[in-house]
Amino acid sequence: MLDPDCFKYLPNFLPSFEADNLCTFLYKELEWRQDEIVLFGRHVMQPRLIAWYGDPEATYSYSGLQLKPLPWHSLLTELKLRIEALTGAVFNSVLANAYRHGSDSMGWHRDDEKELGPRPVIASLSLGQERRFLVREKGQKSQGLLLGNGSLLIMKGQCQQKYQHALPKTRRKAGVRINLTYRMIRDQQVSDLPLRTAG
Known about the structure:
Elements: E1 7-10, H1 16-29, E2 36-39, E3 42-45, E4 49-54, E5 60-62, E6 65-67, H2 74-87, E7 93-99, E8 106-109, E9 122-128, E10 131-137, E11 143-147, E12 152-155, H3 159-162, E13 163-167, E14 177-183
Antiparallel strand pairs: 1-12, 2-3, 4-7, 5-6, 7-14, 8-13, 9-12, 9-14, 10-11, 10-13
């Protein structure tokens, strides 16, 4: 069981038919890119596609990349407002990840970049193919959670300080999955905004 002080999972945030339609549309519509990143001192291509949208000042840096935000897409804005209404958090950016097949993945990491502040609230919306999400605390065995189509995972509090997370490759036949992670990029480190308990 995931730490309830750090994670809240809402399996049915969106109905499956809406999530399917969004996945198909956004996969065609967003301005996807695949970048070279620095991983353990090596230059490698990211094993997925990404797109970064947000307010003009929401520049984000990780793994040797500096992402300048694209102007908000209307659907991304609509989803942002719905998530903000549910959580009570405020977001000014979203990192979209497209996993095209089972070989696309996300390695172990923390979202602990200085732009996010020390206790960020990150809302992760899954669209399309269900994939297994792993979480581990230093020195502990990893825990898994299947992120279903239309589900919302909220990471908050000390989550990024205490835990790493990953989306591993799978040998199973896997269709397209899009993950939208809404974030607040800050000018300085401040405490995270309050998070209302989702009903």
